[in-house]
Fold these 4 entries.
Entry 1:
Amino acid sequence: MSKNLKTTLSFKDKAVDIHRDGPTVMIGERINPTGRKVVLAALQEGNFDLVREDAIKQVEAGATVLDVNAGVPGADEVALLSQVMQEVMSVVDVPLCIDTANPKALEAALKLYDGKALINSVNGEEKSLESVLPLAKEHGAAVIGLCMNDDGIPATPELRLKVAANIIERAGKYGVPVEDVVIDPLAMTMGADHTAGLTTLKTIELIVAEFGVNITMGASNVSFGMPDRKYINAAYMAVAIQAGLTCPITNPLVTEISTAVLATDLSLGRDEFGMNWIKAFRKRKKNQ
Ligand code: THG
């Protein structure tokens, strides 16, 4: 059993620690035109009100890191990602998770960012490793490693572990320490394969046992295509945190999800004196 590693992200003088002994870090997913049509429409009109509003609301609801994606088809992603980040940074002071597959957009984003960002993401493909890892090293950023490569997403936990091992090894060669690699085991929908959730849980357990790294994932992917998704997402969140998930990319505005995270942290002894649970309860009461 490997020891549990700590990833420290920061924005200016504010730091957020991700580790298995502390509270789960919710990475707010909502600033994403690929995932959300309303964000796409707003960005296409050059309207950033929704982005700023989503930033404030997610932090208010307990996100301590925000994912920022500006993938608008046909738009100049280098300029747009930087602008979306500026808008977010003008209203909140949490670390950002920079979600782009475009190395030029990533480089521009890292240049303007003041602190230790989380890059979303690198994968096991040579092209990705070569373009993203040097940027992580140069800017002192942490990086999410997706368990996929040229052959796609491996079907078994053992094969996904191999991809993770390769990413961690290559990161080390580029000078990115293992504690700055956060692995995404890839959550697939149980709507298409009822064992997909279990495969991801087993992948998390294998990777944590071998490397002790932090684990992220798009935690709501598992319920895609199912009715009443929020209940599935909440239950899956709990079992995934137990398996080793430390920083889910999720929607904190869904109360079922954010309360599942807090209740799981309390259940696992990661919420000292239950203060986070009580604080969140008071906030919900106040906003009723
Ligand atoms: N792993 C990593 N990064 C990721 C993902 C992942 N980034 C993107 C995505 N997956 C996680 N982000 C989102 C953002 C928004 C939504 C889902 C995932 C979302 N979806 C609505 C839904 O599913 O119903 C779409 C509805 C709408 O159009 O508004 O809101 O897996 N590393």
Entry 2:
Amino acid sequence: MKTWGGRFTGPIDAAFERFNSSFGVDQRLILEDIEGSLAYANALAKAGILSQPELQQIVKGLGEIKKRVEKEPEWLASQKAEDVHSFVEAQLVQIAGDAGFKLHTGRSRNDQVALDTRLYLKRAIIRVQVEIGNLSRELLNLAKAHRDVAIPGYTHLRKAQPVLFAHYLLAYFEMFQRDYDRLNDCFRRTDAMPLGSGALAGNGFPVDREALRIELGFGQLTRNSLDAVSDRDYQVDFIAAAALAMVHLSRLAEDLIVYSSPEFGLIELSDAVTTGSSIMPQKKNPDSLELIRGKAARVIGNLGSILSLLKGLPLAYNKDLQEDKELLFDSLDTLLDCLLVAQAVIRTMTVNRSVASGAVQADFLNATDLADYLVRKGLAFRKAHELVGKIVLHCEKQGVQLRELSLAEYQQFSALFGGDVFDALSLENSLAARSVFGGTAATRVAEALEAAERSLSRG
Ligand code: ARG
């Protein structure tokens, strides 16, 4: 039975009926829908709309529906309904009879769906934050187990300067920390209780919205009924935060794909997160990471979709808004999946210490240190840069590294060079020199690891 049949005489077109139904997507809100309905039944009873026996019948009926959903998760898949709200109402009427017909007094599916999605999203945000925390933990464990490993840092994907591997990993730790904080903001804006807004103008019965807020565990009330039923900004906030987290995951994935390639060989991915080729027996492909990179595109697309969905809508509710949930759920599911797979990748990967140590010794990663050496001897940096450029060119022609030139050769370039130049060229010096706050010196990285540990244990 339709919840709105009275005004209609003709039957609904079959294609439109399928098209109009959101039950396949919004059935995952059923527990929130029941939770909201229980609170609303209490509010109606307090307002004198439901008698105590009617309230009891409704509470019992909703309780039975909830139990069935929990015991028989496959039940909903076989059911047909316009949406989850009309499904719950129809089930309730079957169990509770006439009392069930009173539950929708003063309420609209418009404030109901806003409530359900907010309740659902608040919990989902916490689940995502837990998984961001778990991924951050894996990054931190890997960093701590490789405190002494240096890798080439890259700009333009060309070797630039050595950095500690832990410093590299902590860069991603920072990104995920920001994602976590962004979700806190998103939670705060999601945490507003819309029930009582009715279809658009507010509830016509004296329901106590403040009591509903407290019963449903919200931090604040929505303040304007028109806004409350048509606001999906909290979903935009979430999808935007999810899209940016996916961008971070995708950048990590891209790095690890490159670093694990035979051409780089800095790390090796475990069999657990790689696949083979159906034709080339030697291949071990980083599909886990490629899929993370690929799935970032979906969530970025979802952000564009939800913004486009909202941009032309007149106030207040329009059925276009039903399209929000697929975008929201897909963003959530994709992000959670990617966070779990990224954890597995980080947990199981190995670092090729010998490749890393060879890679940081080659290709003039200490050229900046040589220029800095000359600066300490009194030469202006721009001149030092020019001179070291010439020395690098000379080495390239000779096929040697900077540390392989003799002091006499150095002195042909400048009388400023002394015997201490070779210390300046060492990897240890190069790292230790970058001891500013935020730099890659071992002392700073040790502090950063401790700070990261503290922030994770704060939760
Ligand atoms: N299924 C609808 C949605 O997700 C619920 C609200 C329907 N309201 C209405 N007036 N048709 O948006």
Entry 3:
Amino acid sequence: MYDIPFLDLPPLRGAAGSVRLPGSKSISNRVLLLAGLAEGTTVLRDLLDSDDTRVMLAALRTMGCTLQPQADGGLAVTGLGGRLPVREAALFLGNAGTAMRPLAAALAVLVTLQGGRFELSGVPRMHERPIGDLVDALRQLGCQVDDFGQPGYPPLALHGQPGGRLATQRPIRVRGDVSSQFLTALLLALPLACADGPVTVEVEGELISKPYVEITLKLLQRFGIEVQRQGFERFTLPQGCRYRSPGTLHVEADASSASYFIALGAIAATAAPVRIEGVGLDSIQGDIRFVDAARAMGAVVDGGPGWLEVRRGAWPLRAVTLDANHIPDAAMTLAVMALYAEGTTRLDNIASWRVKETDRIAAMAAELRKLGATVTEGADFIEVTPPAGAWQHAAIHTYDDHRIAMCLSLVAFNPLAATGTEAGVTVRILDPRCVAKTFPDYFETLFTAVEVRAADVPVITIDGPTASGKGTLAAAVAARLGWHQLDSGLLYRATALAAQRQGVADGDATGLAAVAASLHLRFDGERVLLSGTDVATDLRLEAVGAMASRISALPEVRAALEALQLSYRRLPGLVADGRDMGTVIFPAAPLKVFLTASPAMRAERRHKQLISKGIAANLADLRADLEARDARDRGRAIAPLKPADDALLLDNSGLTIDASVDQVLGWWAQRGPFRSA
Ligand code: DC
């Protein structure tokens, strides 16, 4: 996961492969609440693990539910069975509308009947997202709800005395034209209020986002509650209805998240389709109808229960005019697909975009314009025309909105667009971590299904003599950028160690090359697995380092390791450290650093390092050894240690690690197309 200020996406040129998507947010938070209110234990499988579900889990725990992770990855939730064991608490719900609304309704009903006081709050944006229509409906029921911040918005306080009564004789009226989540919240909570008679809810105004209400009804059904209804206007919960645990419940993958991979297929899957696992044409989620919209734009979509396969059909894509009210979240992806279409795409009836995680109409318009698109926005529509000329480099603001970050990542396919250039443009996604709201591994998943030219993947090389601090610096720079790291010295050390173990002698160039070519190395956190066993400590032994230094002078060994080193150049970028990263392996790297420190300083660092590991060492010997190794690395005929002509020199003798990292990141910021961003 990228806990970094920005992620640069180089131009992407194709897509293929298979992705498994995380569980649906809408289903996860609904079933968590239902399981939490039901009597008995429900095992939930494939739940989404994200910011929004974590706040729901924390809330349920605070309310007194028991949550027990299962060995097989499921979660066993033992519900309250309609009784509140905890009567007072403050619940923080982040920016999760799917937690705030239903919890407000359920707790309001529970404290009215049983007494208690709960405060519900969230992040500042949550306090700008309307909830007044739900508060009105709950007050009709006789609940005491204080919107003690700004009237009509969270935070809310819900309170009541034991033995209170609910006014259920008359229908509860709720507006349906701002958010369907108000109706959903009532439907999920009202089984708690049906002991003495049926309860009816009537919807005022045209209900928006109907498919989300259908999810609610289907999940209530799974918990034994049959809601009687007339269209989308009147819903009745029968007298005596109770949540009954279905035992085990499987959560489908998120259909809104699938929209990015469906779009990916439509835009870039020309040789083989993109396969999506976890959600299929049988989905109960309304956003599965994104498939129809994608088909209308040209995608070829196949599918069955739990799977989809998508390929490019029409190209360029076809512009569409669409009432997107039924797929409000996934429709954002259509606004990005519009960049790859011929003509103007118009999405109508999307006023709800303005009250989501951010004002999504304004945000999409602003970001698409940065790329060169022509965008017209209205109160409830957006019109997108692709850039007329070449696409512009853009640093995309994400407004703490996961869907903005995910859908706009698709602009990285710009070389494929009609006005895209062969070279393509790099796109910077600011605050990429906001995807954690629903899809923490979004970018990692994306990178497994895209094709990129190796030369487009950015590389920073850090070369320098032994014990100059390259490895530490490279690891820190890689972590700050969210990139991969290649410690090339480790490959030479691993070759030396493997040769020692296999009894291949120092002088046997052919034998050593064969060992190098067949290295089975895998990195797993701090562990380095050589043919399955952890050799992280052995690789650091002086004897291994010395042999590595000797065998690294053999052209056969260097050649045998080249392909392996090049294979580390993967999205979103690579920091490679060693002796010849900038001169031989990645000669066209956009930033090359040559790191030095005085021999005295390097000997001291190595000494400290060894002592800290409990290995006895003598400073004078270490320095002599290090100078001998420098001489050998510099003097060898092949790939001698020297700065590349275009390398920037960094002497870190007097610098802290942080200062060196900042220097390299500062140089990098000057290199890319985002100097002013
Ligand atoms: O950086 P290190 O001490 O882990 O490297 C071990 C040996 O490998 C070192 O003596 C030189 C050699 N090496 C090399 O020749 N080329 C590289 N790119 C990296 C290391």
Entry 4:
Amino acid sequence: MPLILKGGPIHFGPFLVTPQVFHQTPLSIALVNLKPILPGHVLISPRRVVSRVSDLTPPETADLFLTVRRVGRMIERVYGASSLNIAIQDGAEAGQSVPHVHAHVIPRRRRDLSTTDAVYDLLDGEEGDLKRGFEGRERGETLKVDDEERVARGPEEMEAEAAMLAKEMAKEPMD
Ligand code: AMW
């Protein structure tokens, strides 16, 4: 069943992601990832499409991190994790591929990757594309997203995960 959301279409950078959104506040959105590094890897963004953390207003900045905190707590519980990576690549040279501020929230378990810090290489893998994407955009090309090694998920899988996570968010305390 499609997730019904009030308030019209929601964009993540140039992408329409309304069916992938599992939580929203007046200023922030949380969506499932097209190419998660690990199961439960989600993204939190300001609702407004701006590239850099410095573009955010103070209320957007506060709301973004409050949303990261609440969503992170839920993700850790639902995916049976005991830690989280919370990461923002703020600008192309820092590895940002989608020019819309987003915090990665990645649930972590003991020995889930070859090394604990391998997650940074995997995030880094995304950034190669992001840089190419920005450079292409400057040349007037369509924005390319993501490394080609990880497989993009289909809309049905992402919608099902978003519906499951929306239900789990409803169980979270308000604070
Ligand atoms: W960056 O390298 O900009 O810090 O991260 C971009 C993230 O956005 C990656 O995790 C990538 O998988 C994800 N992504 C790219 N396109 C979409 C999309 N259409 N919907 C959801 N996530 C996406």
